[in-house]
Amino acid sequence: MEPIYKFNIKKIKNGRIFDFEDTLIREVKLDIVINSKKVVSMMATPIDQEALAIGYLISEGIIKSIDDIKEINLLNDGMVVDIKAKINKSFDMLDEEGILISGCGKSVTANVDIDPKKIDATKITSNKKISTKFIVSQMKDFYNSCPLYEKTGCVHTARLYLDGVSYDAEDIAQHSTIDKACGKAILDGKNVENGILMVSGRLSSEMIVKAIMHRIPILISRTATTCLGAKIADFFNLTLVGFVRGENMNIYTHPERIIYEN
């Protein structure tokens, strides 16, 4: 299934009204099934579904690593990701069903406690460092590498930069772009724990917890963070950089990983 769809509309531009064939992003209900039980249904863009499923299962703690997966298949024209895997036995959520909407949803990372100490994650210990020049260069390249956004203007984007390779992802939901980008790297045999994550949207608490669950040490965005997001990032030793506009940026938490270069 193609991620884009042609749709006939009436367009008003420069004082004229005319027929126009617009390009819309597809939004489908994607089911992730593990060991014959549905883990979750989420509204998503039908591209990189396997990467999304792997990133989601790891970030939610349902599996520990890709080594737990025995088999993965796309079914029903890519709308079902069917997985056979060894799972974390503490998860009784496999008997539940729920639909994750585009912006947030029913998951460990989406249901964030306002007390960071109650979040089931470990603190990040990475000594990864990057320069401000690197951030400026990567963010510029990142924003020029979003084909679905260029065609539709209707998706979020994420990039995981790791070992000189950029893993880019696009989806209607920002949290899914993070899982897709990380899932792509994991499928490529990479350990994402030394990666640098860039996202297009706001640095909300859900996005920050998603990065923490993937053990990402540095999270960067063109937009701002929330108060809760900054508190969670600070507690878990995540370096949070926002408002990257040209050579300007805000380093909200753990600036020791950022090397200033004039």
Short description:
This protein has 262 residues and is α/β, with parallel strands linked by helices. The chain has helices spanning 49-59, 132-143, 147-152, 174-187, 205-213, 227-235, and strands at residues 4-13, 16-25, 28-34, 37-44, 69-75, 80-85, 99-100, 130-131, 156-162, 165-171, 196-199, 218-221, 239-245, 248-253, 258-259. It has a 6-stranded mixed sheet with strand order 10-9-11-12-13-14, with helices on both faces. Strands 5-6-3-4-7 form a 5-stranded mixed sheet, with helices on one face.
Provide structural commentary.
Required for formate dehydrogenase (FDH) activity. Acts as a sulfur carrier protein that transfers sulfur from IscS to the molybdenum cofactor prior to its insertion into FDH. 23% of the residues lie in helices and 34% in strands. By secondary structure, the protein is of the alpha/beta class. It has two domains: 76 residues, Ubiquitin-like (UB roll); 130 residues, Cytidine Deaminase, domain 2 (3-Layer(aba) Sandwich). Strands 10-9-11-12-13-14 form a six-stranded mixed beta sheet, sandwiched between helices. A five-stranded mixed beta sheet has the order 5-6-3-4-7, covered by helices on one side. A two-stranded antiparallel sheet has the order 1-2. Helix 4 packs parallel to helix 5.
